[in-house]
Each structure stands twice: as structure tokens, then as C-alpha cells.
Automatic annotation (TrEMBL):
Pathway: Cofactor biosynthesis; (R)-pantothenate biosynthesis; beta-alanine from L-aspartate: step 1/1. The keyword Lyase applies. Heterooctamer of four alpha and four beta subunits. This is Aspartate 1-decarboxylase. GO terms for molecular function: aspartate 1-decarboxylase activity. Its cofactor is pyruvate. It comes from Bathymodiolus thermophilus thioautotrophic gill symbiont.
Amino acid sequence: MQRIFLKSKLHRVTTTASEVDYEGSCEIDGILLDAAGIDTFEQIQIYNINNGNRFTTYAIRGKDNSGVISVNGAAAHKAKVGDLLIIASYASYNEDDIKNYTPTLCYVDADNVLTKVGNQITL
């Protein structure tokens, strides 16, 4: 049996751009993508802390150390500049995988600079 678990998340990133007239997706600083283990064109879920919107799109790689979090295309209607987001990726795991499972949890500062990577929820 396969079960779906959180693979990784970028916690409380700040939206730096919202581009309706873009082909689509979410541009994310490459350093953050690498830290979270999210690949270009990988499906992601975005949860907007400010307005409660939740939506699915895919990741595209932004310039390393740019701090960019740009919500593009139709999804741009769901996030505006300055909104705090949680960006999550999920994966299917079999029963053997679950025994050694830990997610990758990435935390940033107000400028979307990576400050911590862990595998436990911090409150």
C-alpha cells in the first residue's frame, strides 16, 4: 500500500511578486528549492496564511539567493506581494519507506533567506 506524506515544506515564505500575465507556476529561489528537495516542474501545494487560499501549481527555479517567491498566472489571483505562504510537496511512500520517513522542513527569515532545515515541527 502506498501512503501520501509531506515530503518537504518552505514555511512562512513571503510573496515577492504576483504576476498574472505569466505562463504559470511559482518561481522560487533556487537555494530554497534545493534545501527543500523540490525540483523544477514538481507539483507543489501553496497555503496562503494571510487569506486562507490553498492551491496547486508547479515550481520553477528562480535565481539563487534572490529571495524570489513569485506566484504566477491564474494562481496570482490567490496571493499578493507581502502575503505569507507555506509551500509544500508530497510524495507516496510504501510501508517500508514510512519506517524511516522524515520530512524536510525549511524555515526562512523575513527576506526569504534560509535560516533552518529540520525534520521536526517547531512551535
